[in-house]
Amino acid sequence: MSDQEDIFEADEAYDKILEESADEAETKDTTPLIQKEIEEPIEKIDKRRGKRKKPITEEQRKRLCDNLARGRAKALETRRKNAQLKKIEKEDKLNEKEEKLLNALNKKKDKSRDNDDLLKKIADLEKRLSEKESKSVSKPKPVAAPAAAKPKPAPAPAPTPKAPPAEKVQVELSKKELMKLMRGVRR
Question: Is-contact 156 129, C-beta < 8 A?
Fold first, then answer.
């Protein structure tokens, strides 16, 4: 036998097996293996304890729906009021922060104004001092008359004459230069 004949014989054997299984399937009943007929209906037992609720009437239903609608409206109103209050509080906080910033800026400006006032006072005092010095240099000091009753001590060596103090020259300084000089004077 050739290989082809062996293959065809195997196919024929397979076909026979399929036909036999199909015949057996037709002869069997198509009824399910487990089948119970229920003759009495099953009664449901209410396992809840306590008082049973009555069914709601139409009047009660309408009243409950109205109460629900009023409650929702009231809740919406309350939420809106709370939202407005929060918004106002937030604005107040922002205003307080802005006030703090403005106060800080004003303090800085006040310090600079105080510094300007101090600089003016210093300049004024310097002018007065220079005027007093110029007056004291121009006026000779009065010499006291020697007293006749007192004996004169031995002449002391002649003191070296002091040179008159040099006149201070006023130099006009700009604000910037004065601020540089006054750095260490600040509070």
Answer: no
* Cβ partners under 8 Å of residue 167, min gap 6: 133, 134, 137
* Per-position b or e across 86-106, b if 16+ CB within 10 A of its CB: eeeeeeeeeeeeeeeeeeeee
Task: Name, in order, each residue with C-beta under 8 angstroms of 182's C-beta and a sequence gap of 6 or more.
Answer: 115, 118, 119, 122
Average pLDDT of the chain, as a whole number: 76
Rounded Cα–Cα distance for residues 114 and 107 (Å): 10
Q: What is the pLDDT of residues 73-98, one digit of tens each?
A: 999 999 999 999 999 999 999 999 99
State the Cα–Cα distance between residues 171 and 178, nearest whole angstrom: 11
Query: 124-151 pLDDT, tens per residue?
Result: 889 888 888 888 766 555 555 555 555 5
Q: With contact defined as beta carbons under 8 Å apart, do 180 and 119 qualify?
A: no
Report how far Cα 171 is from the mean position of its chain's Cα atoms: 52
Is the Cβ–Cβ distance between 164 and 137 less than 8 Å?
yes
Residue 122: exposure state from Cβ atoms within 10 A (0-12, 13-18, ≥19): middle
Q: What DSSP state is assigned to residue 149?
A: S
**Does pTM top 0.70 for this prediction?**
no
